[in-house]
Every structure is written in structure tokens, then in C-alpha cells.
Design goal:
mainly alpha, single chain, about 65% helix, about 0% strand, globular, about 220 residues, RNA_pol_sigma_r3/r4-like
Length: about 220
């Protein structure tokens, strides 16, 4: 979509033109859903959060600064709505300090080369508190201090949840690799692992960036 067309749609949405709203929704559906899927536990939950996000987009679009990228603006709204959903639905407060976290080092984790759909499914299986911190730190690049302020938790709790999220992801990755290895071996097929080990940690940013879903 060109800049002129986008600005026309934005102006139409400011005037609450339903056709412009529908076109803008379709144009940014995939991008917005991609962000919400990372934070949600499943597609239905992501769709619910995304629709709440678009409601905010249409409600506050008159405040959008046209000198700035619209994609970044709408991405931030989707992320904030996802975090609001987390706050409203969190059933258990995770208040453990880093000292109580399971000892998982960066060197214990696997590297990139993860299939996007596989990685997304694994992230969605994480407990909501772990998933939210993992997304904010590992993908969106926030510090533990910033995450603490956003989620009303301590930086130590943020670090603890991140370590536990990485530990659970490691277990899921290894299990998926083992299952695929056994399946392909029994079929007499060559096996291509979903990860490549080099001891530098899980590079999830490149996986999500390549799918164009970062906020």
C-alpha cells in the first residue's frame, strides 16, 4: 500500500467512514494478528485481542501523528492491548526472585533455524506470565526494568520468568527434535533437525522478523 493511499484511508477512518475502516482492517490484519498471536495462548484469544486493538485504533486514529510510521503506531497498540489482556486475565502472580529460578544458562539453549509455525506454537504453550515476559524481552527488546514497570513486577521476577520460559522452550524444542528424529528414522528418511546447535541461545527475533510480525 502506497503512502498516499494509506493517508486517504487514515483520513477516512478519522471521519468514521466504515469503508475506510474495513479496508484498513484488511490491510493490517496479518501484521496485527501476528503480534497478538505471540502474546496469546491460541488463535481465538489472539483474534479477540486483535479486535480490541482495532477498536482502539479506530477510536484514537485522530491522534496519530502522520509524520511517523503508521505500522509502528498500530503495532504498539496491538502490543499494549495484549499486555492489558494479560493483566486482566492473569490468575496467578509470579513473585519469585531470580535466585529461585531454575538455573538455565544461555549456553544451554539452541539457536535459530526454527520453523516459524513451530516456534509460535511453542511460545503459545508457555504459561501466560512467562510468554509475556519472553515476548517483551526476547522479541520486542525491552529491558527487565522496563518490563517490570509495564507488568507491575520486579526486574528480578521478569528475569526469573524469562529463564523459566527459555527452559520450557528448550524442553519443547528437544522433544520435538527427538520425535521427528525417531519418526523419520523409522520411515528410513533423512532427518533435518528443526534447530542447529551452536550454544549461543535461541535467536527468535530473526524468525519473527522474517515473518514481518514484530510491533
Amino acid at each position: 500500500m502506497g503512502e498516499d493511499e494509506l493517508h486517504q484511508l487514515i483520513n477516512g477512518c478519522v471521519k468514521q467512514d466504515r469503508k475506510s475502516q474495513k479496508m484498513l482492517y484488511k490491510a493490517f490484519y496479518g501484521f496485527s494478528m501476528g503480534i497478538c498471536l505471540r502474546y496469546a495462548g491460541n488463535r481465538d484469544e489472539a483474534a479477540e485481542v486483535m479486535n480490541q486493538g482495532f477498536m482502539k485504533v479506530f477510536t484514537h486514529i485522530d491522534r496519530f501523528d502522520t509524520s511517523r510510521p503508521f505500522k509502528a503506531w498500530i503495532g504498539r497498540i496491538m502490543m499494549n492491548v495484549s499486555i492489558d489482556y494479560y493483566r486482566a486475565n492473569l490468575k496467578m502472580a509470579y513473585t519469585e526472585d531470580l535466585e529461585k529460578a531454575e538455573n538455565v544458562s544461555e549456553g544451554d539453549l539452541t539457536d535459530k533455524n526454527l520453523n516459524y509455525e513451530d516456534l509460535l506454537a511453542m511460545v503459545q504453550q508457555l504459561p501466560q506470565a512467562y510468554r509475556t515476559v519472553f515476548n517483551l524481552f526476547a522479541i520486542d527488546g525491552y529491558s527487565h526494568e522496563e518490563i517490570g514497570e509495564m507488568l507491575n513486577i520486579s526486574p528480578g521476577t521478569s528475569k526469573s520468568n524469562l529463564h523459566k520460559a527459555r527452559h520450557k522452550l528448550k524442553q519443547m524444542i528437544l522433544k520435538a527434535e527427538e520425535t521427528a528424529n525417531k519418526t523419520n528414522y523409522n520411515r528410513g528418511m533423512d532427518f533435518n533437525p528443526i534447530v542447529a546447535y551452536n550454544g549461543t541461545g535461541i535467536d527468535v527475533r530473526s524468525t519473527f522478523f522474517n515473518n514481518g510480525i514484530r510491533g
